Amino acid sequence: MTARHPLCRLLGLIGLCLTLGLAGTANAKVKITLDDPVIEPLPYAVPDFIGENAGSSQMAHDIARVVADDLTGTGLFREIPASAYISQVSSFDAKIAYSDWQAINAQALITGAVQVAGDKVVVKFRLFDVAAGQPLGDGLQFAGSAKAWRRMAHKVADAAYSRITGEGGYFDSRVVFVSESGPKDARQKRLAVMDYDGANVQYLTDSKSIVLAPRFSPSGDRIIFTSYASGTPRVYVMNTANLSTKVLDEQPGSMTFAPRFAPDGHTVVFSLDKDGNSDLYTLNVDTGALKQLTDSPSIETAPSFSPDGSQIVFESDRSGVQQIYIMPASGGEATRLSSGKGKYATPVWSPRGDLIAFTKIADGRFYIGVIRPDGTEERLLTASFHDEGPTWAPNGRVIMFTRESEGAAGTASLYSVDVSGRNLHQVNTPGSASDPFWSSLLP
Amino acid sequence: MSVRFAIPIKAVLIVSALALGACRNPDRYAGAGGDMGANGANGANGAGGAGGIATSNLGDPSNPASVAYFNQAIGDRVHFVVDDWTLTDEARGILKAQATWLNAHASYGIIIEGYADEQGTQAYNLGLSQKRAASVKNFLISQGVAGARMQAIGYGKERPVALCSDESCYSQNRRAVTVLSIGAGT
Questions:
Q1: Do A81 and A226 fall into the same domain?
Q2: B11: pLDDT strictly greater than 70
Q3: CA distance B45 to A47
Q4: Which of B29, B46, B126 comes nearest A190 by C-beta?
């Protein structure tokens, strides 16, 4: 019964991870297809997890609530309140009374149990396809330190989301961003990281220098960003384990900005400005080898690699107005991607490879949109006084971005929207925030 | 441009405080000790957002050798049209007067700060503002100001001087400002 799941080796941080029985999904009836034009939120129940030993009941409750917040927050699921339950789940291994859950129209049921032993927490969960009257996938167990309890809850929600949608999850992830305070003409900016839902905020720098546009490395071990710490804007790399920071590359008399890692984690692409002319460069952070990719008197910036690392999408005003181009990752001839009316900026390739998100400016309004890498099927997802800087959830289904409000008292907030344009909502942050970058799914 | 207000003449030693601050970091918005040391790691020390306050005297604007005269009577800034970094005829006039003054006062170091309005995206505005600062720097070089005295810094859409969200403010924010620092010149 307790055979080690092959995926468990990937769950390094969590450690112990066991399968708890086997169940087929061949007859599954509970299913959400994200590409459907209309999605009716799927009703589900997640009773408080079972506290299996003394002192675990509060955490068992809290974990179930985070699971519910994750799933309901997608707009794809609708939680059935506990007051409607006919039967209670009395123990993790008790037989499921499917008819009782069918009667309240629950299509999915999540049950779980929690054990707390000192600083260690073990979380077990199962997902049931209520209509089919059977489990949906194997039970899973996560073990980790008590302070990682929210991460374990996110892993439960990721597993449920993934089994029901057939897509990868994104809840167990972090967002690095710029925390903002102070008036518009003297804005204080600090780097910060948080869970994708705004919990566990941690500040990485003080506010002595302007900092801009932080981005994680693919494995999350480093953050690359622009800072005015030396007086001139330059790209810095921070080690996320000990927060030690060093300048990426010292080019006398030049500024560097808009950095982003390649999928290999060894190459960084960024803009380097010499005497008022910005071009794109890559730097191998291991060898220090610098390579110039563009050579144009126009402004070339905001580069982003394709997920396979073979191409770079970027913006340039070489045509006279900001537009999006794609070129080989080694440089060379660029193909213009955007063709609509207005300016196109900040292109970011989806981790799935199927779409490129961008900022569009037209008629004094700002939009977040997506377009296929072949330039077709442009769709605008948002519109406001100022939306900017999309970043992709690890599963390529959700986009986070900065929205700034208008006027002298205007401030920046983080917003999230599905790639379908659904479920636009503000992301919870402790204060004003901008420049989000979404990490990969955590191990 | 007329003198709008008078600043009492204070001792020269206060000006030396300006020189100290300017030599350390050309970013005049940086807090005291504006670097990313250990203080940045835990983030606690910057929580109040209040660094040390450097006091300096800008001098008497009626004195043609003063920084105040340069800033106010000559004009320390030029403005740009949307998404452009070319110098207007008005800007060239101001910069010629700046160059004459700078050539006569060679002890000043010069930071040229370029800025953009909030209507654009961040990375583009960094590039645009750097082009504006470089336009000013290159024009001043053409007027005989030594390039080694000057440093151009683009601030993008950070640090607007006018806060509203319409053209009356945007036109003030699309600027390049010539900032003087004593002791950093040739």
A1: no
A2: no
A3: 43
A4: B46
Of A118, A148, A165, the residue that ends a domain is: A165
**pLDDT value of position A40:** 92
CB-side neighbour CA atoms (13 Å) of A116: 18
Q: What is the rounded distance in angstroms from the CA atom of residue A196 to the CA atom of residue A317?
A: 33
Question: How deeply is B24 buried, as exposed, middle or buried, from its count of CB atoms within 10 A (0-12, 13-18, 19+)?
Answer: middle
Kindly compute the dihedral angle of the four CA atoms of residues A233, A238, A244, A250, in this order, to the nearest 10 degrees: -40
Is the residue at A278 inside a domain? yes
Domain of residue A53, residue span: 6-165
Q: Look up the ipTM and state it.
A: 0.91
Residues A311, A189, single domain; the answer is: yes
With contact defined as beta carbons under 8 Å apart, do A396 and A352 qualify?
Answer: yes
CB atoms within 10 A of CB A152: 27
Read off the CATH number of the domain in which A155 is found: 3.40.50.10070
Distance of CA B45 to the CA centre of its chain: 27
What residue of B is the nearest CA neighbor of A358?
B121
Last residue of a domain, one of A128, A143, A165: A165
Tokens at residue A312, please? 């770079």
Burial class (CB in 10 A: 0-12, 13-18, 19+), A415: buried
Q: Which residue pairs from B12-18 have beta carbons closer than 8 angstroms and sit at least 24 positions apart in sequence? A: B14/B55, B14/B56, B14/B57, B15/B56, B15/B57, B15/B59, B15/B182, B16/B182, B16/B183, B17/B54, B17/B55, B17/B56, B18/B54, B18/B56, B18/B57, B18/B181, B18/B182
A70 vs B: CB within 8 A: no
Mean of pLDDT values over A158-162: 97
Q: Are residues A158 and A187 in the same domain?
A: no
Residues A211 and A88 both lie in one domain: no
Structure-model confidence comparison of residues A259 and B32, the more confident one: A259
Asked if A405 and A321 sit in the same domain, the reply is yes
Instruction: List, as one string, the DSSP characters of A288-351.
Output: --EEE----SS-EEEEEE-TTSSEEEEEE-TTSS-EEEEEETT----EE---SSSEEEEEEE-T
Task: Quote the tokens at residue A98.
Answer: 């499917």
Task: Say if residue A234 is in the same domain as residue A288.
Answer: yes
Burial label, A154 (beta-carbon count in 10 A; 0-12, 13-18, 19+): buried
Domains contained in chain A, number = 2
Contact residues for A342 (Cβ-Cβ < 8 A; gap 6+): A360, A361, A362, A363
Q: To probe the interface with B, which of A193, A206, A314, A361 has the most B CB atoms within 10 Å? A: A206
Q: Encode A28-55: b = buried (16+ Cβ within 10 Å), e = exposed.
A: bebebebeeeebeebbbbbbbbbbbeee
Which segment of A23-27, A226-230, B29-33, B62-66 scores lowest on mean pLDDT?
Answer: A23-27
Q: Using an 8 Å CB-CB cutoff, list chain B residues near A275.
A: 134, 137-138, 152
Helices assigned H by DSSP within B25-156: 38-42, 67-68, 89-104, 122-142
* Residue in A with minimal Cα distance to B35: A229
Q: How far is CA A382 from CA A75, A120, A234, A438, B78, in A?
A: 16, 43, 31, 19, 36
pLDDT band at residue B49 under the 50/70/90 scheme = very low
CA angle A82, A85, A89 (to 5 degrees): 90
Asked if residue A197 and residue A70 are part of one domain, the reply reads: no
B134 touching chain A per CB within 8 A: yes
Looking at the structure, do residues A154 and A191 belong to the same domain, yes or no? no
Answer yes or no: is A1 within a domain.
no
